Amino acid sequence: MSIAVCGGGAAGTVWFDDFQVEDAGITNVLRPQSELPTVSVAGKSIVYFEGKDYATVVDSVMEKNQGSYPWHTSPGFQVIPGGKIHNGDTVQVHFIRPNPVVNSSNGDGSTMVCVSEDTLYPIIQNQLKLVDSQYHSNKYFMSHDEIREMNWDSACQRRHLSPGALLADNVKKCDSIMQEVHPGVERFDWSDMFDSLHNAHNNYYLDNGDLTGDWNLIPKDFTIVNWNGGVPDYSKPEINFRKQSLNFFANLGFSQITSPYYDEQDTKNIRAWRDSMEGVPNIRGMMYTTWANDYSFLTPFADYAWSAGPMIVHEPPNLFETITEGEYVLINADVFADPYNPADSIVKVTYTQYDQLNGKNDTTVYTMFQDTAAHVYKCANLTQGDPGTDVTYQIEATDLEGLTRTTPRYTIFHVPSAGVNVTSVKSGISIYPNPAQTTLTLFRNDDEPSTILINDILGKEVAHFETSTQTSTFDIQNIPAGVYECMITEPSGARTVLPFVKE
After folding, report:
1. CATH code of the domain made up of 422-502
2. Is beta strand 255-258 parallel, antiparallel or unpaired with respect to 223-226?
3. Which CATH number fits domain 312-413: 3.30.43.10, 3.40.50.300, 3.40.570.10, 2.60.40.10?
4. Is there a shared CATH topology between the 312-413 domain and the 422-502 domain?
């Protein structure tokens, strides 16, 4: 058989050649208690009985293949002599059969279970207990994706629910089982069946009914693994469905992981996903998704996971070194254009410095100039270590494609020479010794109740004290070695920040 068809949903021509027609008959017969095969006469109340009027309908080929459904001859329908069915009678046979989601050349594939069968959930619970007993994982990934048949059998029909409600109920039951087997477990699930821009719509594939709105019925603390990289509306190829889908789930309050690669033999898909992630909140990361065990693109995937545009490699100055008054700190960075786009180049690199001196804030932007090495950029106006100055800075780079990347903010404290106590001239507050090892002593001119916070270089609180005396000594022996700030907050709200080193 050969087929020629125009893409994009437009009119075209289909040509079939060298084919044959076979009687599919009664193949792949499922026999759930809720939906055993039945035989009747159309339009009449005549019902025939299995084992009396006709032989038990069993597809032994399907059952022996344990869920694999290769094409095979129908087991047929056999009349039992002496029964009510006679030669020449017209009857209709009703039975439930599985429909594989993805067919390979031999008709094999995976099939969705009936979400309304009560026997399903003890099986899931038992399997999860067995898996958890071996791996003790604190994260579980469910597989609700491309569910192409649902809500046809009597077990689902008698519940009078839409496929969306049936699916959400199944998700919540699976979630309850996971939480019972492993309390506090993180849960992940694919995006497509809950994505209004993907498969969550009316009459998806062979689903009998509407999936719309099921995204409002599943737990919001799931992490959605988003793989919506398609273009469902070929008349509008300019629409970025990746970005729209990511924003759709973000606006619903879900955290997400994106799922690039998908065995495409170039970096365009990876790059497009990484670019679409920009500005979307609660993105937890990217997953290298291969169904063919192809890891040949893992290196560019890792590069793009770091940045879709300019890549900035920067090592902050050694904060354990003494920075004395008037001294400048060298700031440089390695900045790279997109390594998989030979036409890309770096257009601009800037260094932004945020100073705080005696309570006053100042922001200055400097241009970083290219060094003799093509990818090395240096700043000509460097950070100066003035007494009482805290310097926060970041580096930003823009490439020829117009993409801009910014480093996190780094902080440099002015740290006096070893053995020199730090004093705030404005308030008369001082701390010693500096550097300190086990204790830090605070001296001030009053005995007002005050709060003392010890913060690390990223501003994270590592110790908290209260004092109402002029001289107070605090135990800091459990604080790791490093550079810290001692923040004193007075009843008036006034704050004094003094840096020190913990050895």
Report:
1. 2.60.40.3080
2. parallel
3. 2.60.40.10
4. yes
User: Longest Cα pair distance anywhere in the chain, in angstroms?
Assistant: 112
Across 17-21, 111-115, 380-384, 406-410, least confident range: 380-384
* H helix runs in 239-279, sequence order: 241-252, 268-276
First to last CA, the chain: 78
Give how far the C-alpha of residue 329 lies from the chain's centroid of Cα atoms, to the nearest Å: 39
Tokens (6 digits) for 243:
């970005």
Q: Contact, 412 vs 317, CB < 8 A?
A: yes
The rounded mean pLDDT for the chain is 83
Helix (H, G, I), strand (E, B) or coil at 348: strand
CATH architecture of 120-307: Alpha-Beta Barrel (3.20)
By CB neighbour count within 10 A (0-12 exposed, 13-18 middle, 19+ buried), where does 319 fall?
middle
Which range in 60-74, 269-283, 299-313 is most confidently predicted, on average pLDDT?
Answer: 269-283
DSSP string, 375-440: TEEEESS-EE--TTEEEEEEEEEEETTS-EEEPPPEEEE--PPTTPPEEETTTTEEEESSSBSSEE
- Tens-place pLDDT, residues 131-140: 999 999 999 9
The tens digit of pLDDT for each residue in 321-331 reads 555 555 667 78
Looking at the DSSP bridge assignments, the partners of residue 40 are 47, 92
- Average the pLDDT over each of 131-140, 272-281, 298-307, 368-377 and give the range with the smallest value: 298-307
Closest listed residue to residue 165, CA positions, set 237, 214, 114, 104: 214
Domain ranges of the chain: 22-111, 120-307, 312-413, 422-502
Percent with pLDDT over 70 in the chain: 83
